[in-house]
Design brief:
By secondary structure, the chain is of the alpha/beta class. The protein contains twelve helices and seven strands. The chain folds into two domains: 74 residues, Winged helix-like DNA-binding domain superfamily/Winged helix DNA-binding domain (Arc Repressor Mutant, subunit A, Orthogonal Bundle), CATH 1.10.10; 144 residues, Glucose-6-phosphate isomerase like protein, domain 1 (Rossmann fold), CATH 3.40.50. The strands form two sheets. Strands 2-1-3-4-5 form a five-stranded parallel beta sheet. The relative contact order is 0.13. It holds the Pfam family HTH_6.
């Protein structure tokens, strides 16, 4: 059996940086009907998700599970998680919303909006699963402003490859939880040396970080830690506030 102190959601969160796009799609399929999927044989599940049995088994190993039997157990557990909300969650959410609004009201974003309107191409690069959700949200908001965007995969190699083709007047958003990934920051510095007209925008958690330091525009989101109880263990999880345009 795998590590009994970790539930399925925690395993996925910790491995998100090494999961391929196809593996993420498998996980989405697994969690969308966790209880139903926990009752299926490996053969039936592979048919339902349109993937090979070996692909599911490899995913089990990557998540640190002993095999398909443990995956079924974890899916059943995930479908019946007993949520224990933070008693201060509502107050904390209200406080963070107020603080976020104050943060944006205190800033003069005129040049930022001008750069968005004049940008020839806008790229959104995210560093993980949750960041990809924020990138998708930002992309939709920019679409409403009449701007098309390009969502880049989270792989560092993709950023390196794309960095050769950025043009003057382009804008690159980088969405990172910590903002202190040295490999990403160093790559952005290299890109900046090639094209000093590229506008860099960062979106990170609140606090000073390397990514914000090298960006033309830095935005921050605050988080709330809440806990849910599963099999006797308490697991913290972040809640991200949406960027206010």
């Amino acid at each position: 059996m795998g590590d009994g102190n970790m539930n399925l959601q925690t395993r996925i969160y910790e491995k998100q940086g090494v999961l391929s796009e196809s593996e993420k799609e498998i996980i989405q399929g697994l969690l969308s009907s966790a209880k139903e999927n926990s009752q299926l044989s490996l053969k039936d599940l592979s048919k339902k998700l349109y993937v090979s049995e070996s692909a599911i088994f490899r995913l089990c190993k990557k998540l640190g599970l002993s095999g398909y039997s443990e995956l079924r157990f974890e899916l059943l557990a995930a479908s019946s998680v007993n949520h224990q909300p933070n008693n201060n969650f509502i107050k904390e959410m209200a406080d963070l919303t107020t603080n976020t609004i104050k943060q944006f009201e205190a800033r003069n974003l005129t040049n930022f909006y001008i750069d968005i309107q004049t940008a020839k191409n806008i790229y959104l690069y995210s560093t993980g699963w949750q960041q990809e959700l924020l990138a998708s949200y930002i992309s939709k908001e920019l679409f409403l402003l009449g701007k098309q965007t390009v969502l880049l995969p989270s792989a560092l190699d993709e950023l390196k490859m794309r960095g050769q083709f950025f043009n003057k007047g382009d804008m690159l958003w980088t969405i990172s939880y910590s903002g202190n990934n040295s490999a990403i920051v160093n790559e952005l510095k290299k890109i900046r040396l090639i094209d000093d007209k590229l506008k860099l925008v960062s979106l990170t958690k609140m606090g000073s970080n390397d990514l914000a330091t090298i960006s033309d525009y830095s935005f921050f989101f605050q988080t709330i830690d809440f806990s849910y109880q599963n099999n006797g263990g308490v697991i913290p999880g972040p809640v991200s506030l949406r960027l206010i345009f």
